[in-house]
Batch of 2 targets.
Target 1
Amino acid sequence: MSDAPNTSPLAKWVVLRWARRASQVLFLALFLACIFLTVAATGGGFDPSSSQGLLFPTEVFLYFDPFAALLVTLATWSLHGALALSLIVLVSGLFLGRAFCGWVCPMGTLNHACSEVSPGLKGSRRIRANQTRPYQRIKYFILAGALASAALGSAVGGLLDPLCLLTRGLSLTILPWLDYGTSNALEAATTSGSLALQHAADRAYDAVGGVLLYQRGAAISGGFLAALLFIAALVGNRAIPRLWCRGVCPLGALLGLFGRFGMLSLRQNEDRCTSCGQCDLSCSGAASPRPGQKWQRAECDLCLNCVASCPEDALTLGLAGRTSAHCVDTPDLGRRAIVASVATGAVLVPALRTGSASSIEGRPDPECIRPPGALTEEAFLSSCIRCGQCMKACPNGALHPAFHEAGLEGLWTPVLVPRLGYCEPSCTLCTQVCPTGALRPLLEAHKTGKDGAPMVRLGTAFIERGRCLPWAMGTPCIVCEEFCPVTPKAITFEQIDQVVEGKTAALSRPYVFPSRCNGCGACEYVCPVHDRAAIRVSASGQSRDPRSSLLLDDRPDKAL
């Protein structure tokens, strides 16, 4: 019995293992709190007069994202102030390797949870799935390509950032679906005729109003692909545990490269090992912890599962000395594969920009209407990491992920879709939550021009007379002018008498004053022509890009 393992160290590692699970739950809860804090602050009815902005920086997780910070720094040759916090995570990687992936990352926690409940990965099959495989090198090639694209001025790599992916997935997929389902259920209970159900629906509405019910519905323009990627990342765990973390995540690859200098190392005692497979069964990083195998330092997320599950105490974690013969610091990627990845990322930028909103003689796509405070298109695409924070914060649900409006390079960047929502003139929440400076922080006075500076213009409204009710059909309608929020109004009327079906009707034909229009989209949002609105906002005249300016004066443009 002298060779029996010491149970005291084993108990210590078991405690640490549960501490890791508690840490995962805590940080996932904090991340979800940030999502719902934004929803509660902007939903359930929006009162512009009382909006003083968000009291808590709900984008705080992205400030600690070193991959996002590196993308923006390479693309813009500047570091947005708040992103400097990501250096904390990066420096911690020098000491703890990929501990962020195993202890903090909320996307990693969801992947881990989905892997644990996968019914098809049990016993020997899970052991084989948890062993180091060649596919785990893919994330390093993705990282190399993303950084090469960033060096050429495009932050398109943000599409695969795990924190951006999770924010988009929750804000643009899960929450709208929950909102849609909850709204329909409460409406059905309210109209059921049962007094008990009606009272229950009223209490439920008071409980979830402004959290699950935030008046945006399930309509997310261009959000299908974003939802598809997020769901695929979770469903992939049914085939390979933590597939996204092991094979795709560029943030994990970055931390893995820094982890090669980690101060902690796994010590393997081959004499104690009985090859029971418990370490491989529980390894979350597929780092090959079993004695007799090469431990992959760059893949280990410091989950401590192998140490805690080993019944023979054959594995311990301690300070690293000189590189051990049983340790592989970095995977063998191959010089040619790295060069090919960098070249692909470099070629990707001009390829994606072909036909984009800013490539055709400097003319913007008419549907590429950016949020207030947006930089010029080229600078915007260099800074935007497609995190979806601005879309999540918009109280009117006006911002949606671009699909075709901004070209391939602008996929999932925010655009204003006036038919689904309009930009509240006094609201600047989207500029407050942008973590990279792609949207410059604005004050209400500056956005509306109350400080004496020109107001921020998102575009210009145009009237299609062939679809406008007073112009084309002799039907009275003054909705667009009534709902125009600017002062003085950007829409005015010409009063005429017109004979319609043998009767004289007094009609008010609308005109647009281009110099007064801020492109908020309120007129298009309320236009009663149900399919394609008779008045539509175009990106022309946006103040962020002088190349798209119109000839603006105080005369209504009667040629529109």
Target 2
Amino acid sequence: MSVAAERLHMGDLAKARAEIERERRKITPGRRQREVMKALMKHGVLHAFKDRSRDEVQRQRLIGQRLRAAFEELGPTFIKLGQVIMTRQELLPEAVTTELAELLDSVPPAPMEHMMVMLADEIPNWMQMIRWIDPQPLGSASLAQVYRAQLEDGRMAAIKIVRPLVDKLFQVDIANVRKLVRRLQKFLPPQLALSLDLNGLIEDYYSSSLNELDMRREAEVMDEQREMVKEFETLSIPEVYYVTEHVLIMEYVDGWNLKDFPVDFYSFEERLERMTDLAHYYVKAFVEGYYHADPHGSNLMVDRHSRKIYILDWGMTGRMDALHTEAIFRMLMHIRVNQQEDAAEVALDIYEPTRFTDRVNLRDQLRSLFIHYSNSTQASVYNWGNLLFSTILVALKNYCRIPTGLALWAKGFSAAEGTARWLCPEISYHDLVEIADVQIMRRWMSRRFNYHTNASLVAELAKLTATLPRRVNKILEHLEWNDLRMNVDMQLSHSSVRTIHRVANKVSLAFMSGTFFLGGAFLLASGAAQGTTMVRAGILSLGSTAVIVSAVLGVCALWSTIRSRKRV
């Protein structure tokens, strides 16, 4: 029996459960708001934003350091939020995202007894399933911890357990963050608000984090990807032994992560074979719209027995529209053969221009960017991961809408490229992706000519063919009787309607101001010519009032115009 199990018999389980319940009751919206403000003030985050004593890069680095410290103190929700924000390199300066990247490192583990409470709640008969558990975790992340264990049938296993209180923290913290983001969205300039959906960003973060908290979803993704990886002999994904909502028991991989394996463990040919398989697997997954947002070296294990590379940690995964991923690969292919005009045209299939976008300027900037990547390698500063983030930045500066999930997709693509650099730096990852062009084209063609995707086209063509004679006959009858009409219904957008209303209000104020001014001036002039003192005083008073009203209306119209220009 393991040390942990013996402690459970001595009553530590009940004590740990009571501690967890006490902490759960403390998690309320008001308390968390106070804790957030206290952490931000404690680490001087607000002061760093106002500090002007350093140069800009130093100030940004300081902001990133203090944000990281505050997020680590605030716990899992903000650690995961920092990890997601770190991927949005088009929104934050590089100095800030570099500091936030350290949030990816290990987090201090929760007490073993608390994790055993989660295990006992999820699997009441776990002592009959598990022979022993190593109390020292293999890994400790913001949302879960992983332990090495042996099952009763003798198989070695890795047990991933979600941290206690994480679900309650997420519900409370996300509600507070949503309120803050809704307020921030209102202060954004109209151009930026149209292209940058902060509310959508938070919802994506929330939904992806909920998926990470559900181990059943992670097991489903592992099963899907295991089928996809079957054709690659040097790759594998751990087998799932047992899963509940908060516990995942899977195959244990005995070996090293990709950054730590012995240099002489693989020959050059073996490293090249595994790099090729990894590159082609990633291409296959990316083309299908899947992305593993975190395929860095620590999530790739080299098995010392089978010599295969195991892909781990399937929590931060997702899907993106396959048509967008198709456009990304088409853009890369055009860039590699120096067809920058075509690449810029394809980029507009990825990023949607808005009414504030200058398309000519956008294409010029994209062409100027792409020219650097024609003969690039993953070792160069002009690598493909850098390219994708740079295009996102260009699109955002030109007020284009960014597809949901693209930043995480680009992060996964960039991490895959970095993995190749670790495994086989002698060979260009870009060349390996290019030799998968047949595979890419085959999947595009199969998708384009798939029956399910073209069923509506076939049905519409059949309907058009069957009804064509009747439709032509109707048109000819209307022509015969000179009764052919075409109805055109033009509608303005809501923003255009609001702009017209604002202009009309300003014109009305200006017109009223001018009318009152002319009327007041006329009364003042005619009042001065009156002989009777009482009548003259009344006319002069009325004229003065009209002039004052005209001045107030004029100031209101002027102030409204100035405010409108500031918003733009």
